[in-house]
Amino acid sequence: MSRSTAEPAGASDQPLGELGRFAEPALYILVSLSDGPKHGYAIMTDVEATTGSPMRPGTLYGALARLERRGLIEALEPEDRRRPYRLTALGATTLQVQLDHLRAFAQAGLARLGREPS
Amino acid sequence: MSVLLSLYPKRWRERYGDEFAELLAERPPSLRDRLDIVAGALDARIHPQLAGSAARPERVSDRFGFAPLLGLVAFASAVVLAATGPVMYDDYGSYRDGGAALPFIILAFVLLSLGLYRVIEGLPRDAVAARAAGWTAIVAGLVWSPMPWMLPIAVVFMLGTVGLAIGARRAGTWPTWALVLLVVALAAPTALFGASLFLPWYWLRTSGIEPVVFFACIGAPWPLVAGVLLRGTPRPMPA
Fold first, then answer.
1. d(CA B127, CA B205)
2. pLDDT at B93 > cutoff 60
3. Which of A22, B27, B87, B125 pairs as cysteine with A63 (C-beta 3.0–4.6 A)?
4. Cβ B19–A83 below 8 Å, yes or no?
5. For residue B229, which of B122, B81, B144, B127 has the smallest C-alpha distance?
6. What pLDDT score was predicted for residue B211?
7. CB A50 within 8 A of CB A89
8. What ranges do the domains of chain B cover?
9. ipTM for the complex?
10. Are A50 and A34 in contact (CB under 8 A)?
11. Is residue B87 pLDDT above 60, yes or no?
12. pLDDT exceeding 90 applies to what percent of chain A?
């Protein structure tokens, strides 16, 4: 994966929260692409299978456009009319940071509940 | 499907249109999907993400736009005061004394003149005709305000305002929609006034309709000038 030049180095430190209502869908998309390139419909079905919640078309492409602009994902050559997307190096780093934050948050919450994971 | 796609900006359709249409073909959208697509299209227009698609230039709002906005309040107050003034009787019959409205209508035109002046200021130096039209509108408006029964002066004011708007439209500081609204709003009372001068349309003058339409429509410059100024003009590109 080549590092995109659309964002300056260090952008992975920025939370996806700046994406507003697209932050959560964007995180789902990054997770979905973390095991390989997917096109729009495959991302939708994968996110639905993973989260149990549908990802709707307008939201999907609103988040895709934001991720692509920030260099977190990149489009590959179209296959027929489908265009696959893949994670960039910057996207992978950003995803890692986000998941680390979520893990720390989950651990803190579980500890307060007295259910600290071993 | 094409209707939903057409809601998106052209640049967006060029980039994502094919794959988006393919997605919708693979998974026909439900009602909630359709609503989500409409929201997505709106988002794509307000927050374009494609490089180079931030086509709407940054605008510089002119706070002088609040002057005609306040003028609109004064104008509306004047119309209400004039319409509800005490009934007076003279040798010719009865009429409503609208004297209490005079200070408000004068104030309304003073405030509008500030807005018109700012529009004139935004014109290029070579827009001589538009500047002349603008100054004509200002002078005619200020002259007309203490004697609103002199309707021919109001017509001069309206023509001057339209002339200024046309010049500003050419200079790119007055949007087309505002010009159309202005022309329609001012053409209606002008036509009514002209028609009422002649038989068999003279009944317009005696029916009481003419002043209502006239004053309702002649109020158009206040919100339009305010809107144009507050909406702002495109920020000039740095040299």
1. 38
2. yes
3. A22
4. yes
5. B122
6. 67
7. no
8. 2-53, 63-231
9. 0.82
10. no
11. yes
12. 58
Q: Which two tokens stand for residue A72?
A: 């977190």
CA distance B15 to A118: 48
Q: Kindly report the CA angle at A17 between A12 and A21, in degrees rounded to 5?
A: 135
Q: Residue B59: its pLDDT value, please?
A: 61
- Measured between beta carbons, the chain B residues lying within 8 angstroms of A78 are 18-19
For residue A83, list chain B residues with Cβ-Cβ distance below 8 A: 18-19
- What would the pLDDT profile of B112-132 be if each residue is shown by its tens digit? 999 999 999 888 878 899 999
Confidence band for A78, pLDDT divided at 50, 70 and 90: confident
CA–CA separation, B223 vs B80, rounded Å? 17
Q: What are phi and psi of A85, to 5 degrees?
A: -125, 150
Nearest CA in chain B to A45: B27
| Angle value at C-alpha B155, between B98 and B85, nearest 5 degrees | 10
For residue B153, the one-letter residue type is I
Look at residues A90, A92, A89, A39 and name the one whose alpha carbon lies nearest to residue A64.
A39
A68–B19 C-beta distance less than 8 A: no
In the 8-state DSSP scheme, what is residue A37?
Answer: -
